Amino acid sequence: MSSASPAIALPTRPLGRTGMVITRVGFGAWAAGGTEWGAVDDAASIRAIRHAVERGVNWIDTAPIYGFGHSEEVVRRALRDMSAAERPLVFTKCGLAWDEGNPQAAPRRTGTAESLRRELDASLRRLGVERIDLYQMHRPADDTPLEDYWQTLLGFKRAGKIRAVALSNHSVEQLERAERLGHVDSLQPPFSAIRRQAAAEIEWCRAQGAGVIVYSPMQAGLLTGAFSAERAKSLPADDWRSRNAQFSGEALLRNLALAEALKPIAARHDTTAAAVAVAWTLAWSGVTGAIVGARHPAQVDGWIGAATLALTDEDLDEIAAAIERTGAGSGPSRPPR
Question: What gap in Å lies between CA 291 and CA 331, rounded to an integer?
């Protein structure tokens, strides 16, 4: 990055009790992995990451399973020439292992100590860092009790290999079991104006002083205001959305109607529907930040406004009414007053 393009200061919030302070939006590097989203250009991904940092974003979320290590390698390349002062925080995950001989097979949900140690070392190497800022168990393991894999992750934190330890896609009951052994620093749940079921987990984290970084706040592009039924029909077979129920039939029509309802609110705030969709998730008091992806720099500019957008009670009421009217998704339609 050039010193002629200094990062812009964006609003921040403490990530639970970790001591880290993060911007309200972070860069999601799932698509940078080059699998599941169709063809991706590494150079464009690197430009997008650097542009997000230049716009003030101070954290990046990735995972080994994104492109079987490729996303982490792209993140390393994007950050390689940044000074220590410029470098964002780096968050990654563990617990999904793939078969090197058959990477197209479904990954194993594993939490064995041996696997997690191997995954951590590989992520440190691919990212080119000595310590990972936030290490998250991607999903509950099939082969190991939660108490066992949580103890392993707490051990990584005590050893100084990771700064903070977290869970992703875990329920309130699972969070409580982990908390009894050691504090859950953060949770990463799916959350958007369409997929709203994680409200209970968000409230649990708020009460426990745990951070929350939500993923897919624009519901994989459905709430950007730029998606269409025609676009859904033209998604390539190697894009996971082409096989997802939210992108076809009546569900797609309901989702697009909700996205359309965000446009008048965006116009009032002189911003984009995408920014409104992300800001809706940030309006929930327990949410620290939202992970937002981009394949090229222009997409970053489409949602960066969410970092500074405060929706009013009237805005939230209007969105809740649109959710009820369209029937899009499920879960609470509005943050608690």
Answer: 20
Q: What is the CATH number of domain 22-221+284-308?
A: 3.20.20.100
Three-class secondary structure of residue 294 per DSSP: coil
Quote the pTM value: 0.92
Contact call for residues 55 and 320 (beta carbons, < 8 A): no
Closest CA to 188 of 326, 300, 28: 28
In terms of Cβ atoms closer than 10 Å to its own Cβ (0-12, 13-18, 19+), residue 324 is exposed
Distance of CA 13 to the CA centre of its chain: 16
CA distances (Å), 44 to each of 60, 74, 139, 290, 296, in order? 16, 10, 29, 22, 5
Q: Helix axis angle, 146-158 relative to 113-127, nearest 10°?
A: 40
Per-position pLDDT tens, the chain of length 337 = 443 344 568 999 999 999 999 999 999 998 888 776 667 899 999 999 999 999 999 999 999 999 889 999 999 999 999 998 899 999 999 999 988 877 777 889 999 999 999 999 999 999 999 999 999 999 999 999 999 999 999 999 999 999 999 999 999 999 999 999 999 999 999 999 999 999 999 999 999 999 999 999 988 889 988 888 888 888 888 888 888 888 888 988 899 999 999 999 999 999 999 999 999 999 999 999 999 999 999 999 989 999 999 999 999 999 999 999 999 989 999 999 8
